[in-house]
Design brief:
Helix content: 10-25%
Strand content: 25-35%
Shape: elongated
Low-confidence stretches: 209-216, 276-280
Largest sheet: 5 strands, mixed
Length: about 280
């Protein structure tokens, strides 16, 4: 469970049958770099070690003849006989809650990440670690890439409906019954299925629903409330603008009127400037 109230359940991705292949990809070349990095093979599982069928025993055998095991491994087997095998992450059920985080902390519908620490040591003593992003998508499981963006830190990306919040139900037809998509409602602050036209309810089933739990209705109600709030704010801003314009116009009018009145007042006469006028001295 995340801090946003979203729930995730990756148990369906755990491969328990030791005779079956764990999730696998061959990758390693980093895009947009001039060098061509070696292509390694990656195998990983969820909340469990990779299966025996996923580990090449001849490459991953330790000096005591035991086979390396971990939640994620990386190995290289070249045609010239050179090979490597490293455990890049372990899973500890006792520390389960510390391994998970959101891909996007602002949008839990994007998916969930799991971190596997405490892998084999790198030459400099750093412990390897692996991070797996499970992107929310209406597919069961598709591994997209595996890279080493930082020294001894590995990053795998896959798509799966099980990387979606459980508030977006999975039916026999797929995520949101394959008639909608999982998204996060920022107003209701919860993820749910946004259903296509003609489908409704938590799982996007055929027909319409008038119940208050109908996600589409909740979304419409939330969007309507947000629209009304934005409209009210716009009206207030327009009123304030009109008042300001009116006040400025009034002040301009007052200043103009004051200047007109000043121009009509007679100038003060200086007696010394009057020509042809005799000043008479009076005695009392």
């Amino acid at each position: 469970r995340s801090n946003t109230g979203s729930h995730y359940d990756l148990q369906a991705l755990t491969i328990k049958d030791d005779s079956k292949q764990s999730f696998f990809i061959s990758d390693g070349d980093i895009p947009c770099t001039p060098e061509t990095e070696p292509t390694y093979s990656f195998a990983f599982n969820f909340c469990a070690d990779v299966t025996s069928a996923s580990v090449p025993s001849q490459i991953c055998k330790m000096p005591n003849n035991e086979i390396k095991r971990g939640a994620a491994i990386q190995y290289l087997n070249r045609t010239d006989g050179y090979h490597e095998c490293e455990v890049i992450g372990h899973y500890d059920p006792a520390r389960d809650d510390t391994y998970f985080s959101l891909i996007d902390f602002n949008d839990p519908s994007k998916g969930v990440s799991i971190q596997y620490p405490f892998g084999d040591k790198c030459p400099d003593g750093t412990l390897r670690s692996a991070k797996i992003d499970v992107v929310c998508k209406n597919v069961r499981a598709t591994v997209l890439s595996a890279l080493e963006p930082g020294k001894c830190n590995y990053h795998m990306v896959m798509e799966s409906m099980y990387g979606c919040p459980t508030q977006c139900p999975i039916t026999s037809q797929g995520l949101c019954n394959s008639h909608g998509h999982c998204a996060y409602d920022v107003i209701q602050r919860q993820p749910y299925c946004y259903c296509n036209e003609g489908y409704s309810g938590d799982s996007c089933l055929p027909g319409s629903s008038s119940t208050s739990s109908d996600s589409s209705s909740s979304s419409s109600s939330g969007e309507s409330a947000a629209y009304k709030a934005e409209l009210a704010l716009l009206i207030v801003l327009v009123v304030v603008l009109v008042v300001l314009v009116g006040f400025v116009a009034y002040m301009v009018l007052q200043v103009t009127e004051f200047r007109k009145q000043q121009s009509t007042f007679p100038s003060v006469i200086n007696p010394m400037d009057i020509s042809g006028t005799e000043l008479t001295e009076h005695h009392f």
